[in-house]
Amino acid sequence: MIDTRRLRTLRAVADHGTVTAAAAALHLTPSAVSQQLLALEHEVGHRLFTRDARGVRLTAVGQIMLTHANEVLAQLERAEAEVAAYTTGAAGEVTVACFATAISAVLSPAITALRTGSPGLRVRVLDAEGDQSLSMLLDDQADLAIAVEYRGAPDAADPRLHRSALYAEPFDLVLPQDHPLASSGGASVRLADLVGETWIGPYPGNPVHDVITFACEQAGFSPDFAHCSDDFRAVVALVGAGAGVALVPRLALRDMVLPGVAVRRTPGPERRVFAAVRRGAQTHPLLRPLLDTLYTIAGSLGNG
Predict the structure, then answer these.
(1) Backbone angles phi, psi at 82, to 5 degrees
(2) How many alpha carbons lie under 13 Å from residue 82 in its C-beta half-sphere?
(3) Mean pLDDT of residues grouped by 10 in the chain (304 residues)?
(4) Helix (H, G, I), strand (E, B) or coil at 213
(5) How many CB atoms lie within 10 A of CB 234?
(6) Alpha helices in the chain (DSSP H)
(7) Sequence-distant (≥ 6) Cβ neighbours of residue 290 within 8 angstroms
(8) What's the rounded Cα separation, in Å, for the pair 155 and 104?
(9) Contact indicator for 219, 197 with CB cutoff of 8 Å
(10) How far apart, in whole angstroms, are the C-alpha atoms of residue 274 and residue 38?
(11) Whose CA is closest to 248, among 204, 201, 290, 215?
(12) Chain centroid to CA 72
């Protein structure tokens, strides 16, 4: 009989690539994780991982077991959801990992709306960048993630996740007021016109950094990020100081004081935002009203 706890350990090691990182995510010691892997290999009768200086890699049998582990763990999530629905599940706490702009744009309004529609539902919020929130969800540190599409992000077919699109927002170009392109009136500015500029933006690893880099590469150049901040207010302040140019998601600019800068439309880049839960949990009676409310609020957003 295979222990389902060991299947969770298998998936954590596959996700994180090292025993040490998986142990941290599972709140176990590396020794305990290694022992669970050895026990699972004994139960299966085959090696599941090969180990080298960089970490661990799944064997062919390990990949087979991971596929089944994802199915088993999704079924357990569905079982928990059905039991919760049977016992009404009208009261309880949901932990949401979400990045700052989406907290303001959709999550906070959803919490306000749920006070009336689902008064027994408590929402606990963890501020996390769009890539970090998915790791927190898969490591059971959060019940729902609001995340951003980026190169390397799990796609809609990922067997670990159930995900749904919330909204897509364009990026606007923020320029110093004395920049030659700042006086273009209401006309949009092509990214190709910004070759050779000094750029300000989020750190590498932030999904927005990835979106900006990809958009510029599509325009024929690589952006030179001389200044980095994950805080868009700081980014805009640096632009106002004449330190460079920036692409900023439109919702992040909403209600922001913008001294010393000009904002111009630019065709192309978008930040695509989605909600994700662990596969099988999407019908949980605590998650369903939150997801429905998020979709409703996201559908009412205006990005013009």
Answers:
(1) -70, -40
(2) 7
(3) 85 88 89 89 88 84 89 84 66 92 95 91 91 90 93 85 94 94 80 95 91 93 95 96 96 89 90 94 91 95 62
(4) helix
(5) 13
(6) 4-16, 19-26, 30-44, 60-86, 100-102, 108-117, 132-138, 207-218, 232-240, 250-253, 287-299
(7) 94, 96, 110, 114, 118, 121, 123, 144
(8) 25
(9) no
(10) 37
(11) 201
(12) 24
Instruction: Please state, in angstroms and rounded to a whole number, the distance separating the CA atoms of residues 177 and 81.
Output: 54
d(CA 269, CA 250): 11
pLDDT computed for residue 302 by the predictor: 63
- Of all residues in the chain, what percent are helix, strand and coil, respectively (each to 5)? 45, 25, 30
Tally DSSP H helices, then E strands, for the chain: 11, 10
Structure tokens at 1: 């009989």
What is the C-alpha end-to-end distance of the chain, expressed in Å?
57
The owner of tokens 């999530």 is 77
Q: Is 60 exposed, middle or buried (0-12, 13-18, 19+ CB in 10 A)?
A: exposed
